[in-house]
Amino acid sequence: MANSHNPSGEDSLIARYFKPLATDPGAFGLVDDAAILRSSGEDIVVTTDAVVEGVHYLADDPPGTIARKALRVNLSDLAAKGAVPAGFVLTLALRSKEDIWLRPFADALGEDAKAFACPLLGGDTVSTPGPQMISITAFGRVPQGRMVGRTGAKPGDRILVTGTIGDAALGLDVLKGGVIAQALASDLHAREMLTSRYRVPQPRNALALAVREHATAAMDVSDGLAGDLTKLCAASGVSAIIEVASVPLSAAAASLVARNAVGIEMPLAGGDDYEVLCTVPAARSDALVTAGRAAGIAVTAIGTIVEGSERPRFLDSQGKELALKRLSYSHF
Amino acid sequence: MANSHNPSGEDSLIARYFKPLATDPGAFGLVDDAAILRSSGEDIVVTTDAVVEGVHYLADDPPGTIARKALRVNLSDLAAKGAVPAGFVLTLALRSKEDIWLRPFADALGEDAKAFACPLLGGDTVSTPGPQMISITAFGRVPQGRMVGRTGAKPGDRILVTGTIGDAALGLDVLKGGVIAQALASDLHAREMLTSRYRVPQPRNALALAVREHATAAMDVSDGLAGDLTKLCAASGVSAIIEVASVPLSAAAASLVARNAVGIEMPLAGGDDYEVLCTVPAARSDALVTAGRAAGIAVTAIGTIVEGSERPRFLDSQGKELALKRLSYSHF
């Protein structure tokens, strides 16, 4: 752990809260400024994602869910790349170092680090008078040259997605007291399911080896399915057709769309899903679905890669193209 | 680069400013969420350090010096660990994305990335309404098991430090218009030297191989020589005696101390030096000094490791112990 400017204050904070998470020998119990990631010739996959108070989580979100989200958005990247987690480093920009916030934060982070076999290797804590921010850089391992990129999608590939799409964006609306909160005023269960999908993503690391085995291209859906698919297609030099009726929705989301409480655009363009989006040769599509079933993860085919450079087309059940006004959820 | 929530806005920002820095094939031109760090069995050294506006740099510091400092504080850690830079990932928390700030920031970052052979591998940009923050995780390589830690200092080892100590803390005082600014009111040259030492550290990567070759323990001095030596000794289970008259000061700092414009405590405890502090068996001390000379880096012996668990003692030229009221510069 780097010691940004009060050795006594920060050192005791690190020892008290974060040392128990540093189970890897390469972390040196956090007494050094640096950590070691051992490698025996495989590729190290590196990904970095930050979450900011008021942008990626809400100031009154429970500290434990903030910790889990900060780590899981990175674990989700590793899953989509076909990588096995190896560890992470953490930068915490905090306004205060109160036990009532840090204790549940560190406990939940430790639980997830253990559950996903992704130990803390080091980090830095700094003070900020502004919004809190948690920046994590996570590491994974793949055999040499086997990281699943974005550029390999081929015409004819099927497009698959894990889990359900759009719940997190609906959950954020619930937390903000928007139209969805009103539409679900009498349905506590649905409100809780959707908000927990926003607060605590479910990264699909259990599917990582199957993604590496079968996918020609993959990424995680963080900024909205429509926008992220557009990026994947651009990187691969292809286009796509999505059968909107096939896009997997939770019962709550499907009901909201059926009641016209929300347009289909919101799940398609809403962010924070952290599901895996991948392209798979048609002949192997079933194999990935089967691997998902074995891992307890729904995998759904939602469309096909086609030649071309135009934006992906989203077709309704009559084959009519939907004109999406936006593709992604936009903060920046 | 991860895309935090406005694909079009962020993607174009990345392409315009940061893609030219992503010269390593493992960066995939920043089109992916993840990067690859190739390894052929050596250890990957990982270090992470963030700089925060108003804490580690001042809001009106030139964007170019902010960029250099953000990268160099991490390069300094790699140098002290005996590691050769391999690349870095960047998280930018910005209030605005104005060209007038980002252009010189990215240009200077690119120059340093090239000069230190440490290419950009990926990153994340997020928006913040609060102070800006730059968090960097940097990677280096060492042969397996050869990272220089903090725990190997042995009684009898000489204590060596690179460059000069205390200039950055004095420079920060100048920038804040403190007592040093007044004491140097008529000496523009000294003011500029000291402020540039605060704004742009000189990481000692040219000495990394010699540190790996000779040092039993090492760290970079970021929080003040006295406090950082105390940490190194605690990690090694030893104590130390420092000959204060041997601590290398710049002419400007030495003059300020001689005039009693500032006590010796300020250079000894002031932060932001980013020099290498290391312990070396007495018989090899000269070899490290010689290696420094070859690399154009002053290396000075300032004391000796001794048995014991008490805090290091700082002796004046009469052998009398100085009572330091503080050991480190404290922000957190």
UniProtKB/TrEMBL annotation, chains A, B:
Domain of life, per lineage: Bacteria
Protein name listed in UniProt: Thiamine-monophosphate kinase
Binding positions for Mg(2+) 1 per the UniProt entry: T48, D49, D124
Claim: Nucleus is one of the keywords in the record: no
Binding site for Mg(2+) 4: D33, T47, D77
Organism: Bradyrhizobium neotropicale
Residues that, per the record, bind Mg(2+) 5: D223
Keywords annotated in UniProt: ATP-binding, Kinase, Magnesium, Metal-binding, Nucleotide-binding, Thiamine biosynthesis, Transferase
Name of the gene: thiL
Biochemical pathway: Cofactor biosynthesis; thiamine diphosphate biosynthesis; thiamine diphosphate from thiamine phosphate: step 1/1
GO biological process assignments: thiamine biosynthetic process; thiamine diphosphate biosynthetic process
UniProt-listed NCBIfam families: thiL
Keyword Iron: no
